[in-house]
Amino acid sequence: MTELTIALAKGRMLDEALSRLARAGVRVSHSALGSRRLAIEDESGAHRLIFVKPSDVPVYVEHGIADCGVVGRDVLLESDADLLQPLDLRMGHCRIAVAACADEYPAAATGALRVATKYPRIAAAHFGARGVPVEIIRLSGSVELAPVLGLADCIVDLVETGRTLVENGLEVVEVITESTARLVVNRASYQLKAAAVSRLIGSLRDEAEREGAA
Amino acid sequence: MFEPLSHIPDGMRYYSGSEARLRRGCEDAVMAVFDGWSYEEIETPCVDYLALFERGMGYAQAHRAFRFTDTDGRMLALRPDVTSSVARAAATLFADRARPLRFCYASQVFRQQQLSHALWRRESRQLGCELFGVAGVNAEIEMLCIATEILNGLNLGQDFRLTINSVEIFNGICAHLALDEPRRERMRQLLDKRDAAELQKFLAGYATTETERASFARLTQLSGKGEILEAARRIITNPRSVAALDHLGVLWRIIETLDLADCCDIDLGDVSGLDYYTGLTCKIYVRGAGAQVGSGGRYDHLTANFGSPEPAVGFVLDLDSLTDALMRRETAATRPRAARGEATPLPRPDTDPAALFTDARRRRARGERASIDGAR
């Protein structure tokens, strides 16, 4: 019987998350992975994996439809989901940063700083904490274009290697915070499925520590 | 401007059919248990001064309420909780009554701002009980007994869990680390999210040694049965926290003797509602609900806000979350059901109304259901 449903974020971290889970004992067959099914069982049948957009991972877990999830800290900071975050998986390292054309930043702003971003909450909290008035411009992709074309003075975005920034004439002017993948757990599942959840946390913690030591 | 009347405000909903019957059955079952433990029903005003809730629930929670102004300019609120009002009544209206004083209620509460995505309702029905005037473990055990009796009565089997903790464990640690208010709140949030990684980073500035940091971060993992307390004693040494651990130890031994240990857990990571509770806290989880369905604890400082300090404990169940979970469990057998017979067919409505209703009233007098077909 399925004990735990685990939501995984599709995209940049999925392969790493799957191999980490496999080493922690949650293995899925190649044929199941090769299929286009969005919900598959692992070989033991004790876990069900579901694949959703990163920003939907906190939603599934908060409602208890998934018991656990693997998702970047960036996504968690942006969502205001009420979740437990018992484990830093120490993978999918990146930074959330303010980037701009360096010679034009900080803009000689008398009004509000215009910030283009996919992370409006993080951006508002960051500038708000310093009392800087900002106009947040919410975009859903190709954020780097905004300062180049004059839509915004700067951007707040995820930076992995920084190559996209450089190629668009931007650079990191300020790092807001670091982000790694986190294991998140539903509050009710944490209590009601305590044995299964703590087994999963335990084996993932061992793997994360091995990874961190290497 | 045209607004379709079909639209319902966010966080509000209708209940009907089997769901409404389930709610009624559930509420009756819960209220019967409260009554069985000698709790007297109380109805509090639905509209009250915002200041009452600010004092009762704390500023942040009270300000989730729907607020408006009275004719004299004072701020009113649609009640966001019932406990504040019951505590005021205990301290004022019922000040002269003999203690212990026991009240229970089934009341709607409202909030303009949702609590979380999973707790999305802005109107919900709270079933709660409050016990005033008893300081010791007896009041706390009474509360746990009532809660488990209710949940067992709903035929949930093993599918519910009560977690207990004492806020004094966390308060002792914060005092020991000499944290100011914003830092205490930051540490509370990290512990509440069981975020060991960030907690360890945060503690870097306060706990002196690596070992001390690692051991406080271990607090996030301390959830389970009685052995948790032993593990906690190895980590925590400040007298205030140790006294709280001792108290939990006493409670746990009684819980074991009463055979409640299977459905109870100690959870040292539960640190929500710190400003409200002064000792024991409790949360109730039911399989099928993604968030807690109830919570409670000891709040010895609350009635002092209304001029008469006295010990108090209480808990509430959220009828909406509870019945959501019961509906999802689907097995009709587990649902409490108000006794209700099948309606026996009445004569056709085209018979003489006097004869029709004479017959219907006779059936009603015998306790049968009457269901009259469409009017002619």
List low-pLDDT spans of chain A: none
User: Order of strands in the sheet with the most strands of chain B?
Assistant: 1-5-6-12-11-10-7-9-8
| Terminus-to-terminus distance of chain B | 41 Å
Biggest protein-protein contact in the assembly: A-B, 23 and 27 residues
- Rg of chain A, nearest Å: 19 Å
Summarize the structure in words:
The complex is a heterodimer of chains A (214) and B (376). With 214 residues, chain A is of the alpha/beta class. Helix content of chain A is 34%, strand content 29%. Chain A has helices at residues 14-23, 30-34, 57-62, 73-78, 120-129, 145-149, 163-167, 187-192, 194-213, and strands at 4-9, 39-41, 47-52, 68-72, 84-88, 94-100, 113-117, 134-138, 154-159, 171-179, 181-185. The longest helix of chain A is centred in the C-terminal third of the chain and has 20 residues, at 194-213. Chain B is an alpha+beta fold and 376 residues long. In chain B, strand 3 and strand 4 (75-78) form a beta hairpin. In chain B, helix 2 (50-57) crosses helix 4 and helix 6 (167-177) runs antiparallel to helix 11. Chain B is globular. The chains are: A alpha/beta (214), B alpha+beta (376). The A-B interface holds A 59, 62-65, 80-88, 185-188, 190-192, 194, 198 and B 116-118, 159-161, 163, 193-198, 220-221, 223-224, 265, 267, 283, 285-287, 289-292.
Structural topology:
The complex is a heterodimer of chains A (214) and B (376).
Chain A: E1 4-9, H1 14-23, H2 30-34, E2 39-41, E3 47-52, H3 57-62, E4 68-72, H4 73-78, E5 84-88, E6 94-100, E7 113-117, H5 120-129, E8 134-138, H6 145-149, E9 154-159, H7 163-167, E10 171-179, E11 181-185, H8 187-192, H9 194-213
Parallel strand pairs in A: 1-3, 1-4, 7-8, 7-9
Antiparallel strand pairs in A: 2-3, 4-11, 5-11, 6-9, 6-10
Chain B: H1 17-36, E1 40-41, E2 47-49, H2 50-57, H3 59-62, E3 67-69, E4 75-78, H4 83-91, E5 101-110, E6 123-132, H5 137-153, E7 160-166, H6 167-177, H7 181-192, H8 196-203, H9 210-217, E8 223-224, H10 227-235, H11 239-257, E9 264-267, E10 280-286, E11 294-298, E12 312-318, H12 319-329, H13 353-365
Parallel strand pairs in B: 1-5, 7-9
Antiparallel strand pairs in B: 2-4, 3-4, 5-6, 6-12, 7-10, 8-9, 10-11, 11-12
